[in-house]
Amino acid sequence: MSRHLKSQSILLLAVNGLFVLAGALSGTFLNVYIWKVSQNFTLIGWFTFCQQLALGLTFWITGKWVKERDKMIFLRLGIVVSSLFYLFVLWAGKHTVDYIWPLGLLFGAGSGLFWLAFNVVYFEVTDMDNRDRFNGWVGILGSIIGIFGPWISGWLISVKHGDTGYRLIFILALIVYGIAVLLSFWLKKREHGGPYSWLEPVKKLHKGSPWRQVAPSSAAHGLREGVFSFLINLLIYISTQAEWRIGQFSLITSLVSLVSFWAVGKWLRLNFRYYGMLIGAILITIVIGPLVLWKVNYMTLMVFGIGTSLFLPLYLIPVTSSVFDLIGNSKESVEKRVELIVLRELSITVGRLAGTLLFIVVYSMYPHMRTITWLMLGVGAAPVLSWFALRKWLKRGVKAA
């Protein structure tokens, strides 16, 4: 099979890029917007928890319709629901903090709908030979968007001063979502699958199944992601009191990430996934060290950000590609691809929820910045556990190569 990407893969990358761009323009500053009103880490933690809970439930419940009906409907529906979220935020304004639970659930549902449909279509338009390349391009696009999206938003907020700037970036996100919906109509309709098995994710966890390795690995991956997804931009704003610094941070780290994702996507081979993932997991843990050893400020956050951007692709591309290779490992797995993607996402969601709950509970008991940095180190080491759980499946990939 060719390692080159086909037209449908490129079109799917474009739709994904627009969805991510909308999030970069507005979602990057969403938690900062809530923080400026509430000054409450715990509240933002619960907002994130709601998103993650809704995302996991949406994956499981809508898996039936994604498998048995047109996947593109749910891809577009995810974009539309995400747009509705920002419409509600525009309507609520500073009273958004009064609707944390319903808004968090709405935002998570939109993300769940989009990413479930995207992951299923992504599996169908790629194969083992070009999956690493596709994931490399996903990372490259995410990096390019990370360079310009948050920087533009941070500049607009600074120029427009406060609430006006935030409303403007939320409107821009709505426009980008609209373009993404239009572009998605050029994606071909995918074939319907067979009947959806609600309990298939549970059945796959029987003794001897490789999913007994993949599920814990995915949960460990989510443990880090759940906390870091909302915390980093908040720490930058708290340290600098300037939104444009978040844009600057994103610009610099995304430039580094762009080169790193390109290099790993281009040169990583099956026989290096085992060691590549381990090295990446160790290094993205080590770069948290400056935040623990020294004071949390813009410089230590920048060291952490650049280090993470440089080494994350070594971990992220193998862990993603290996799981999807397992889904394509047999005819039976391919037929159950929707259920298996749901299993992967439920595992990640369990990790995200556990990480976020751990943050909420521990910080509520010890509300200090030192608590946050030690928590970051603890959950930030979870990728090493992810590699440990997946190591046997990775070794099989090395032997196959």
Please give a structural write-up:
- The protein is an all-alpha fold and 401 residues long.
- It has one domain (7-187, 204-400): Growth Hormone, Chain: A.
- It has 16 helices and no strands.
- It has helices at residues 7-38, 41-68, 71-92, 100-125, 131-160, 163-184, 200-203, 211-240, 243-267, 273-286, 289-293, 298-327, 331-335, 337-365, 369-380, 382-400.
- The longest helix is centred in the first third of the chain and has 32 residues, at 7-38.
- It comes from Paenibacillus puldeungensis.
- It is found in: Cell membrane.
- It is a multi-pass membrane protein.
- Keywords: Membrane, Transmembrane, Transmembrane helix.
Provide a concise account of the structure shown.
With 401 residues, the protein is mostly helical. The chain is 83% helix and 0% strand. The protein has a single domain, classed as Up-down Bundle (Growth Hormone, Chain: A), CATH 1.20.1250.20.
Q: Which key features would you list for this structure?
A:
single chain, 401 residues
Topology (elements, then pairings):
Layout: H1 7-38, H2 41-68, H3 71-92, H4 100-125, H5 131-160, H6 163-184, H7 200-203, H8 211-240, H9 243-267, H10 273-286, H11 289-293, H12 298-327, H13 331-335, H14 337-365, H15 369-380, H16 382-400
Helix pairs in contact: 1-4, 1-5, 1-6, 1-8, 2-3, 2-4, 2-14, 3-4, 3-6, 4-14, 5-6, 5-9, 5-12, 8-9, 8-12, 8-14, 8-16, 9-12, 10-12, 10-16, 14-15
